[in-house]
């Protein structure tokens, strides 16, 4: 499986409606602190926008809703994974990406046979508090060897200037939140990301 090199992460279908039509081909809906009804509605909207734009939608955390809404790709962290029904996820035909932050988490992730592995935070992030220090670029090289052919997603503190570094160190896709969502012009920043990742898309 191949992932687009530009992996956008946003917290609403509104963001997806704004940015996916610009040419984004891989987006995660990462919603926190909203009601189940609101999340379900956003998943439906996001699914419809992504389908119309040929964009792969990945649902974060809400594996039951992803199954119920007929989604096809899920992202789970380690705690999410511990509480999830992997058989139900697989039976529903969902692909699965997993977060990792250290060697033990990588072992746990690999035993769940994921479709990609994410490593973070590569750089310090302002999105959420994390108990891990920045991994640095060299750790990506190590992970790429250890995951033996699986796609590797780099996440945490990425911006347009850091894109080439993560790909040069083995990442297959660069995931980003605040460099786009907190930018004064998110559409322009998205276009910069699309341009900066183009050479990794075609190679
Ligand atoms: C691509 C990608 N990588 C890592 C994460 C983080 O997942 P998790 O550790 O479950 O934390 P939350 O995002 O749920 O706060 C991710 N969402 N996406
Ligand atoms: C949601 C998330 N997970 C991470 C991990 O390391 O697992 S880092 C992160 C935040 C990514 O946001 P930004 O691009 O704004 O730094
Ligand atoms: Mg999670």
TrEMBL record:
Record-annotated membrane-spanning stretches: none
Catalytic activity: 2-[(2R,5Z)-2-carboxy-4-methylthiazol-5(2H)-ylidene]ethyl phosphate + 4-amino-2-methyl-5-(diphosphooxymethyl)pyrimidine + 2 H(+) = thiamine phosphate + CO2 + diphosphate; 2-(2-carboxy-4-methylthiazol-5-yl)ethyl phosphate + 4-amino-2-methyl-5-(diphosphooxymethyl)pyrimidine + 2 H(+) = thiamine phosphate + CO2 + diphosphate; 4-methyl-5-(2-phosphooxyethyl)-thiazole + 4-amino-2-methyl-5-(diphosphooxymethyl)pyrimidine + H(+) = thiamine phosphate + diphosphate
Gene transcribed to yield this protein: thiE
Record protein name field: Thiamine-phosphate synthase
GO molecular function list: metal ion binding; thiamine-phosphate diphosphorylase activity
Organism: Rhizobium gallicum bv. gallicum R602sp
Family that this chain belongs to: Belongs to the thiamine-phosphate synthase family.
Domain Thiamine phosphate synthase/TenI: start-end pairs: 12-180
E.C. number(s) listed in UniProt: 2.5.1.3
InterPro entries per UniProt: Aldolase_TIM, ThiamineP_synth_sf, ThiamineP_synth_TenI, TMP_synthase
Cofactor(s), by name: Mg(2+)
Pfam families: TMP-TENI
One GO term of the biological process aspect: thiamine diphosphate biosynthetic process
UniProt keyword list: Magnesium, Metal-binding, Plasmid, Thiamine biosynthesis, Transferase
Pathway involvement of the protein, from the record: Cofactor biosynthesis; thiamine diphosphate biosynthesis; thiamine phosphate from 4-amino-2-methyl-5-diphosphomethylpyrimidine and 4-methyl-5-(2-phosphoethyl)-thiazole: step 1/1
GO cellular component, one term: cytoplasm
